[in-house]
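Hello forum,

I keep getting stuck at the same step: I have a sequence, I want structure tokens, and every attempt I make locally crashes halfway through. Rather than fight my setup again tonight, could one of you with a working pipeline run this one for me? It's a single chain of 461 residues.
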Amino acid sequence: MAGSQKQATRVPSCTDPILAARLEAIKQLAGGLSERVAVMDRDFNVIYTNESAWSDDASQLSGHQAKCYEAFTHRSDPCGTCPATKLYESPDVRSVACSSGGDGTACGMHQAFPLVSSSGEVESVLVLLKAPSKPAKQTSGERAEAKYELKLGELIGSSAPMREVLDMIRLVADSSATVLIQGESGTGKELVAKTIHRTSYRRDKPFVVVDCGSLPETLLESELFGHVKGAFTGAHATKRGLFEEADSGTIFLDEIADTTATFQAKLLRVIQEGEIKPVGGTQPIKIDARVISATNKNLSELVQAKMFRQDLYYRLAVLPIYLPPLRERREDIPLLVGHFVADSCKRHRQPLRTISPEVMQVLTQASWPGNVRELQHYIERAIVTTTGPALSWANLVTAGSQSVEHDLRSVSRGAVMQAERMRIVQALQQAGGNRVKAAKLLKISRASLYNKLRDYSIREG
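Reply #2:
Ran it on my machine without issues. Output:
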């Protein structure tokens, strides 16, 4: 129900425990933000907003439940199209964005995320709204303020997918709700977890990392929950678990999909009750550790295949973050390369190396199956194993693995061919279409020029 601009919309009561937890987490997150945040149901009813979302005349909507188009655009009819409907129609869609124009959405939606109930259905959507438009005339200070920040902690990116990630991190950082980070290997899931911790009020408390996939079930339980003396063979003393070590801080459970059903049941109880019971112990211990988990697998598919507990999945994914692979954010590669070159040169006590635009283009177009981690290690090998003021094509090939080297050679050949074609076209234009004069300008034989015209499908005129 829409309230006045002086009071944020109340989160309604909800019988579904997962959806209620997510709505409560959003309320905690958005309450003190200057950014405009709203939650809407399937019928476009506004079921929650923070105070910043309302315009100056929103108070006229109090007394009845407002539709989003009534609350944010003061229209009596729905927008012509709304990208948010895709979230209900396609469960695999993780987020949608909108650009207004024509008869499209006019509410100022910047991005929308699905909110899933315990039954797996999308019941409502979280909407991040754009800031109100500023007057046309801006000072230089206002223009500088509008420039998007390309870095958050050690995370770097200006592409649309990474802006979504950085926005989400800023939104969720100070919440105590659980976060699930999903993405391919090498995309930087642990770095995202560290960034959430370091930008939260828990930043001065412990950040504890647990690789769930590297430990057998019995050892993992002992490591996380601790054990009492004599609990099992070799337990010569009582040992604190990592949940206790992370008390008041953050515990990061990496590769959570690789845990067993028995362990998942125990972890679910810890998250629900906020307490642990050491192996062999009888007395529970209250803990206050924020849980961030990560996996390179699709947990929703594992849930459907009954290989991961559904109730635990929804407890872990109160605030889900999808980290895109490098191939979906190629425009960030020059930023990452510049950062990795500077960092590697500093750590290995070398003068700062430069990279030509041609070499940067080759790096940007390579596939990088190992994502950001592979790119980082590749640049570091090139810095350590080569000399000279600039990283050349030869340096990159020398430092490359077979898969990347194949990509780089292919991209390099393509770049050379493109440049050669452009030079031939330019020479023909300079020669007024005369092939003999163009061949002289290019310093090649007429026969060679004819062959290249055929190879590149160049037709004069």
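Residues 156-324 form a domain with the Rossmann fold fold (CATH 3.40.50.300). If your local run keeps crashing, start a new thread with the error log.
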